[in-house]
Structure formats: structure tokens, C-alpha cells
Fold these 2 entries.
Entry 1:
Amino acid sequence: MPPDDPALIDAFRQGDEFAFVALYDRYKGAVYGYCAKMLLDRTAAEDLLQETFARAYEHRERLLNSTSFKAWLFTIARNQCLNALRKRGREVGFAPDAPEPPSPGATPFGNLLKSEQAALVSRTLDQLSPSYREVVVLREYQNLSYDEIAAVTKTTVSSVKSRLFKARRQIGEILRPWLHPDSLPRPSEAAASLTPAAQPVRLS
């Protein structure tokens, strides 16, 4: 957080219009990016960007302190995205969080996601459930800490790590043909594997 953010946020909480505009300019890119990747629809993301900041201004008295502003803002954006997905008739479920070890370090598909190969990224994110997609977007794109993601999603750090581990594992499976094309069987090999092995001819 830039050093002048707390002063801006305190002024915003008191209704300062200039502070609100400054915060909008500072965070609009991050909020738009989050909405765009959650909805995979740029036009809808533009609408939700405006709605998010309108609601933030309307309910600014609910912001408890300046250090929680970023998580608070993303929580509003998250709620708008989930409402939009429900209106589309898409299932917005949250998978149970069985204990899983956190993913160790950077992963190859993380770099591929960040490369912004738009079509591939969109197809990949679209195959994730909202609960998995949001932790990937918040972590890989918005660089939120585990604590911040837990605050946004109203869950625990261990739950965030579990979802992120499972989401990365699922993304790895989805992207395996692009990451490891040589690991896929060749057509001739695949056909051979479907053919019963020839039996030796026994002479009577």
C-alpha cells in the first residue's frame, strides 16, 4: 500500500470526493482485472467496476480502518461477481476444503497464466469453479496475501491454501497438453494400446 493511502482512505471515509476519485484511479485497474477474469466478460466487468465503487462510496462508513481497505474493496467486487454469475444461471458452489499441502513455490502454469495468452487463459479459468477461480485470480493476478484473500472470501488462511493448491492442480491438468505436449500419446501409439496383443501361434 502506498504511504499516502491511509490518509486518502481516512478522507474518503469522511466523504471527501477528491479522496474517492484518487482511490478510484489507484484501484480501478485491479478491480476491473479481477471482475474481468471472474466473469470472462469485459463489458460486464466494466459495469461491475462502476457498481463496486458506487457501493464502496455508499457504504464507506462500514470500512473499519484504512489497513483493510483493499480487502474490503475486493469483497464488494467479489459479491458483485458472484451475483452476476448467479443471474447467468451458473452454479456458484464452494468445494469442501479437505486438508491439502500448500503448493511449493512457483508453478509452470502460473507463469503461463501471467503471460496473458487471452484465449487460453479464458478457457482455463472458465473450467474452474468460482471458489477456485477467485483464489487463483486474487493470488496470481492481484498478488494478495493469504491473509487478504481469507478476508475477501470470508474464510481461513488454511482454506485459502487448500483451494489454491487444488485449483493449481486442476489448472495443471487442463494445461498439460500445452505445457508437456510430448507427454501425450501419439495416434499410432494410442491405436496400438487399444488393439489386443497378438497371441503366439501354437503348432499341434
Entry 2:
Amino acid sequence: MTNPAFKWKNFAPEIILWCLRWYGLTPMSYANLSDMLAERGVSVNHSTIYRWFMEYAPALRKKLRRHQFIRADSLWQLDETYVKVKGKWHYLYRAINKQGETLDFYFSQKRNKNAAYQFLKLCLRYYDVDTQPKTLNTDKHSSYAHAISRLKKEGRLQADVEQWQVKYLNNGIESDHAPIKKLVVSSGGFKIRKRAWSTIEEFESLRMLNKGQFDFWLRHNEGKTLIRERSAFMNRLFNVEVIYQ
């Protein structure tokens, strides 16, 4: 029976998922990926790989979201980095916890009070009072203070949550931007905001997988098989079972 998620596709589901993983984790172009597949006897045009990425990236994010642990953590690090779309700067807001795990991310055309508010509200949507952080460490942009104050007034954020602006405490998230930025640069840039967002969703989702944030769900988590097990886990999210020899 045909897997409904891959209906009408001319390639096996595992080949499509290979492309998602490879492009989402390795700095390469769609043309590079097409050449890699050609070496393995699979002829796929780079524009086809691009369409796969646009179609399945949002789906992967939703599937991984259902398996993401919601755990209490005393400190969150919040920051934003720049991404250019059609010659104009956009802003990728990102949050990690003390362990370096990605909590959430938000893509905005603006860097202002409303963008900071929407981002923080997004981060908090799965956290109840008992699992909210005690401290939010941000940069010194005034938009975060406004967003935190507004969320407290709305009852979405505990009144005793503190905002810190300690530069060295955000070293972790500033370093964590680098792999995502490297992938963005290798993509050759974006011309359409919607497509930029879909691509970034894939980069961020696979980065979370590669960080080990979903290793609890693996069938085996021994070091020597970890990469294959993470790949197999992603396949299972799409109901694709591949037997590795």
C-alpha cells in the first residue's frame, strides 16, 4: 500500500527522506545533492529536491514537535540573528535552555516589540506555571523588556520571572546560531519569505534531532549506531520503515 504522505511521488520515500536529512544537516546546494544521488544511480533533478524540501519541511517540524519534551529549566537564553531575503534583512529569533537544547524559533520581517512578544509567546505556549523558566537572559534590545512585561500582564508568564541582560550568559546561543547560519549561507540565499521560512524550519528541526533532543525515542542509542538510529527515527515519523544491514 502506498504511503499517503508520498502519494504520486516517482521516488521511494526513503530517497526523499535522505535528501531532507542531507540537505538539512550539511552545507551543500541542491545541485550538490543531485550529484550525490547520481553517484548512487538515482537521477533526480535539483528542482525536484527543492520541491521536496518545501513540501516536507513543515511536516517534519510538526511531527517532531509532538515528540519534544517539555521540561522545567531555570534559565532560557533568547537572541536573534539576521537572515537576508531578497536583499532585505529578516530576523530569526531563537531560544535555547542551559543544556543547549533548542526550545523554539520564530522568523520575522521586523525586530521590534511585537516580534519579541510573538516569539516569547510562541516559546511559552507548551509551558505551564511549574515548567516556566525563572530567568530569561536576553540582549539589551528594549523589545524584550516590553514583551516580558506584556506577557506578565496577560498572565502568560509568571510575575516573578526575571529578565537578565548578562552578555556572557548568551555566549551559548550566539555559538548555536553558527551552524544554522552556515546552512543558510550554503543555500545561496532566499528570494521568497515563505520559502525561506520552510527551509529554516527544516534546518532547525534537523539540528534539534542532531543535538540528541529526541534520542529518548530511539530503539537503540549506542554511539556506534546513533546516526543510523536517528535517521530511522525520522523515517518512522513518516511511517517509512527501512531495515539497515
